[in-house]
């Protein structure tokens, strides 16, 4: 391959990625190139005329082609920021979304407004990258967090992320379905149960953005025929594990607020909803 400069490589990458809705072509190209060159993004701005070694150039174009087909940038870079913390991500874990920060922010706010002598025990159903569990443990210094996932990849990735952020002694990642692995821990009552469960209707997964529907784990998205299967399971199943007066907090899809209120109304009180920064209903909390 003929040597090419940073500038030329970026221009060619732009042509390849074009105007796909799921890419920010120039930003993506810069991130991919700095990833391949193992340099900071700022290096590129100062070295537009530097020639890129052939092997790196080849690798760069491979990744650009992959990205052009919709492969998530975060899986290539191996990372996504959430709540100001870098999380390692890879295929098999859902990429943390900024919308989910609203759920974590609200829980932190509620915990901090309540003075208790011992830290809260928090149970999460559906670990993913560990974004929720790790950031709760990180920002609530005395929280003890338990998080369950039905798939093994998230359990491994989340433990790695907990370690990266120094909260591994207060986070416990368990493999199994819903509440099933908890009994091995003995009788623990939780102050908070939190979940961002799969909530897309099964037949609507194909309609999501290509990069989500093709490359992100279906297990983390598929909420059954009406998208509400896991809300029902967690809402009723959680009663056995919650302290009296304990809190159940869910992330929801933008059109699921009424359904959630209906599901939680029987067993939970003081139900509140919180909108995300885009004005969509995103969080439902009950006690
Ligand atoms: N918000 C996710 C999306 O990108 C869905 C996550 C979920 O099902 N919990 O569609």
From TrEMBL:
What name goes with this protein?
Answer: Release factor glutamine methyltransferase
Source species taxonomy: Bacteria, Bacillati, Bacillota, Tissierellia, Tissierellales
Keyword Methyltransferase set for record = yes
Annotated Release factor glutamine methyltransferase N-terminal domain residues: 9-78
**HAMAP family named among the record's database cross-references:** RF_methyltr_PrmC
The reaction(s) annotated as catalysed by this protein in its Swiss-Prot or TrEMBL entry are: L-glutaminyl-[peptide chain release factor] + S-adenosyl-L-methionine = N(5)-methyl-L-glutaminyl-[peptide chain release factor] + S-adenosyl-L-homocysteine + H(+)
Residues annotated as signal peptide: none
Question: In terms of domain of life, where is this protein from?
Answer: Bacteria
Q: Where is the Methyltransferase small domain?
A: 116-204
Answer yes or no on keyword Transferase.
yes
Q: Which gene encodes it?
A: prmC
Which Pfam family would be a valid example here? Answer: MTS
Q: List the source organism.
A: Andreesenia angusta
